[in-house]
Amino acid sequence: MRRKRLGVVTDGAFNAGLTVRLDPGVSTESLRIGDFVIVEGEEYLYFSAITDLELRATDARVQADPPPDDAAFLREVLQGTATYATVQVKPYLMMRRVSPAEPLAAAEAALVGEEGSRPVKTIPMHFAVLCEAREEDFAAVFGAEDEAHFAVGTPLTQDIPICLDLRRFVERSNGIFGQSGTGKSFLARLLLAGIIAKGLASNLIFDMHNEYAYSVQREGGGWAKGLREIFGPSSVLVYSLDERASRQEGRAVDGVLRLGLNQIEAEDVLLLGEELDLTSTAQATAGLLQDRYGEDWLRALLEMGAEAIQAFCAETNAHPGANAKLAVSYAPVVHATSKKEAARPAARSAARPVIAIQKADHHKAEAVVTKLPTLLRHSMNDFLNHVAGRSSNAATHASPMPRARHAG
After folding, report:
1. Fewer CB near the terminus (10 Å): N or C of the chain?
2. What is the value of pTM for the model shown?
3. pLDDT tens track for 50-75
4. Three-state secondary structure along the chain?
């Protein structure tokens, strides 16, 4: 089946785009700004989009004295001759043609699939034909859904699926940007669902606002299922830093992460300076504490009373106020215990305090989790070892697809 013809190119420039005169019988009301179209050049097919619509007349008298409403025959005669419409088209991608005489030949589709599309570096000549883009054209550019391609949506003006090659997607660094409420989290959840469904990669998700594991309310109303609810506990594991999260009805977690106090180093304080409202003097004091107490500097700080602070400052010339500020700043987000830690080298296997992020101080909790690289680097091995242990125990019941790790 040939593409539906819309018009021919009559003017244009590489930077400004192409001007296309619509054929008689093609109404501007059947087109929309943003519609994807194909320009059939002599050597290339140009995957393009409509950027503007314009009504024109060959005779100024028609514009000055249009036919009356009851002159239907005259209006019909003038349409397409004395009056016509143009569209502005912007080419984005180009694909080499095989047979200009047979634009839909199987050989052409094979070549497009082999060579792929490329950025536009030229423009077609006068009278190149403009056609509607078909589903096959979208498949040639974006790929058709298969073991690697995942349909992420449709254009606003056309009901044709657009696919993303997730195999290539997971090999690169990617970002999703947009204003608040534009659907960044929804798109991220959709892409993660595709990666899990296709079994292309394992995912480690740091979910600071509980948007991915379980259902969330959409901007326009209704609820969108989370990854855990779609794929089940055999494919999506949820871990939390808050013990109370494990007791929430309908939002079960697979484990609670606890992080050792001696996994926090003085350099981490520099990253938390703004969140904890620490002065440069307080930040420097953290270095003095680490020099004196080593990896147990934070526990020693939290256990210091007023006299101990004064004694430490007298010995090291540290500022008492800065030392106290450090202790006060860490106290709301650090809870010391004395549980023993397993699976550590002998030098680090002694009883060590751990920390649990307290949900009551949510802003500082986020800061600790997202801005303590040294802490996370040490604790991640414990986390992954725990996940690996669960995965091996559940191997007989688990889906063959990779499991998504979710830290809620």
Report:
1. N
2. 0.64
3. 999 999 988 888 877 888 877 777 77
4. CCCCEEEEEEEEECCCEEEEEECCCCCHHHCCCCCEEEEECCCEEEEEEEEEEEEEECCHHHHHCCCCCCCHHHHHHHECCCEEEEEEEEEEEEEECCCCCCCCCHHHHHHHHHHCCEECCCCCCCCCEEEECCHHHHHHHHCCCCCCEEEEECCCCCCCCEEEEHHHHCCCCCCCCCCCCCCHHHHHHHHHHHHHHHCCCCEEEECCCCCCCCCEECCCCCEECCHHHHHCCCCEEEEECCHHHHHCCCCCCCEECCEEHHHCCHHHHHHHCCCCCCCHHHHHHHHHHHHHHHHHHHHHHHHCCHHHHHHHHHHHCCCHHHHHHHHHHHHHHCCCCCCCCCCCCHHHCCCCCEECCCHHHHHHHHHHHHCCHHHHHHHHHHHHHHHHHHHHHCCCCCCCCCCEEEEC
- Listed by start position, the domains of the chain span 5-141, 202-258+356-408, 261-346
